[in-house]
Design a protein that fits this description.
- With about 425 residues, the protein is α/β, with parallel strands linked by helices.
- The chain folds into 2 domains: about 5-140 and about 305-360, Rossmann fold; about 155-305, 3-Layer(aba) Sandwich (Rossmann fold), CATH 3.40.50.460.
- Helices cover about 35% and strands about 15% of the residues.
- It has 14 helices and 13 strands.
- It has helices spanning about 15-30, 40-45, 60-70, 90-100, 115-130, 155-175, 195-200, 225-235, 255-260, 275-290, 300-305, 310-330, 380-385, 415-420; strands spanning about 5-10, 35-40, 50-55, 105-110, 135-140, 180-190, 215, 240-245, 290-295, 335-345, 345-355, 400, 400-405.
- The strands form 3 sheets. A 7-stranded mixed β-sheet has the order 3-2-1-4-5-10-11, sandwiched between helices.
- Strand 7, helix 8 and strand 8 (about 240-245) form a beta-alpha-beta unit.
- The chain starts with a strand and ends with a helix.
């Protein structure tokens, strides 16, 4: 009889992170593992012995399908940085003590760059101690900045939401354009990689011109040049829509959001908290050009919009989750599952595994050749890369007009009583 699987979720969630969790659970059960334990709030919660038996919450196929359609991290997530082994060996002793206590054979962490760093460290410690567990990373991030893999689960759905929302913002702006000049600036997530921001260009179609300007963090940003370009556009048209990454920075290396706030708040990994880029630029444009401006920050909606998830993304996330179990079951450890693009037309992909040491703490950015010469838009090659990933729709299960989700925190909620009120 096989032992147990332990799975956790870490970092910012995505619209399909729970589809990967569903893939882990289903494949582990099919492969004969005794239990699948879920870490509550990632490795940080696990060290406090916060975990659940997934079978208590997924009892049938309907529960599994609901989980695939549920946004946020079903298990809860964290941003906890494991110390290096030589810095605090006691942390690792605690983790492996709990792994042995629960008879864990396979440890799976669903996350991005920092989560793969956790897999790397745990695997390295297992080599030092001869521990029996296998450690496999399951990719997740809307930022699409994980190395080696063609793309990451979560990116396609976020790109679909961004393109759709950009198109709707453009429609809204045009409705107020009579005898008025107005500038809309949309802020998109993306610290150092502009994959999500570039996806706004997908809004350009037969019935929409798309945004006028798109700025990615891969190219130095000039506030003066930006304002001048907006001014020239306003000479020709009444509505200007610009899309900017939250992480755009000047040639001197200063993030534009730092002009809006002098806050230096950082997370456990030293990442500055980003917000206010669009608001600051809207203020500058209004002050210098005298036109009406509006800042639109999509914020967490980009990663929470499960109602607009890409079917390709949901299916790939589920398959990647299953592939992590298969990889461990076949003897792999210290690896991350990757997605390989087999073809674009028709779009096909496959999963593989790659050494996590080559992935952890790396960062895949948009190639400069996929950004136009002026640095204010993306190329057709970029769009050809992204477009297949947003295809199809994974319809929510609707109850009284609202999507139904799987939520362990509300398992005893009195739905019948609510309906009567």
């Amino acid at each position: 009889m096989k032992g147990n699987v332990l799975v956790g979720q870490s970092g910012g969630p995505t619209a399909v992170i729970n589809s990967s969790l569903a893939g882990v659970f289903k494949t582990a059960m099919e492969r004969g593992y005794s239990k699948v334990y879920g870490m509550r709030y990632g490795i940080q919660g696990f060290m406090d012995e916060q975990y659940i038996d997934m079978s208590d919450h997924i009892k049938n196929e309907l529960d599994l399908e609901l989980l695939k359609r549920t946004p946020s991290a079903f298990l809860g997530t964290c941003r906890y940085k494991l110390p290096e082994i030589h810095e605090d060996k006691a942390v690792y002793e605690r983790i492996f003590e709990l792994l042995d206590k629960l008879d864990i054979e396979v440890f799976i962490y669903i996350g991005g760059n920092d989560s793969m760093d956790t897999i790397r460290k745990l695997f390295d410690y297992s080599l030092l101690t001869g521990a029996k567990q296998k450690f496999v990373g399951c990719p997740k991030t809307i930022d699409n900045d994980l190395a080696i893999t063609d793309h990451t689960p979560g990116f396609g759905s976020a790109a679909k939401y961004i393109a759709t929302s950009t198109k709707e913002v453009i429609c809204d702006a045009l409705g107020f354009s009579y005898k008025k000049k107005n500038v809309n600036i949309i802020e998109i997530m993306g610290r150092n990689a502009g994959w999500l921001t570039g996806a706004a260009a997908l809004s350009r179609s037969e019935d929409c011109e798309g945004p006028d300007l798109i700025y990615l963090p891969e190219v130095p940003f000039s506030i003066e040049d930006f304002t001048a370009k907006v001014g020239k556009l306003l000479e020709k048209k009444d509505v200007v829509v610009a899309v900017v990454s939250e992480g755009i920075k000047t040639a001197e290396g200063k993030y534009v959001c730092e002009y809006a706030s002098e806050s230096t708040t950082t997370d456990a990994f030293g990442h500055i908290q980003m917000t206010g880029t669009a608001a600051y630029l809207a203020h500058v444009v209004h002050e210098q050009l005298g036109c009406k401006t509006r800042a639109v920050e999509l914020s967490t909606l980009q990663r929470a919009a499960a109602h607009l998830a890409s079917k390709i993304d949901v299916d790939e996330a589920f398959n990647v989750g299953g592939a992590t179990v298969k990889a461990a079951d076949e003897g792999c450890s210290g690896v991350m599952v990757v997605i390989d693009r087999v073809s674009d037309d028709p779009y096909q992909s496959a999963t593989g595994v790659y050494d996590v040491h080559r992935i952890a703490n790396g960062e895949k950015v948009v190639p400069r050749k996929w950004i136009n010469k002026d640095g204010d838009y993306v190329t057709e090659e970029f769009l050809d890369y992204v477009r297949p990933l947003i295809q199809g729709h994974y319809a929510p299960m609707m109850v009284e007009g609202i999507p139904r989700h799987l939520n362990m925190n509300l398992k005893n909620y009195d739905w019948a009583h609510t309906a009567k009120r």
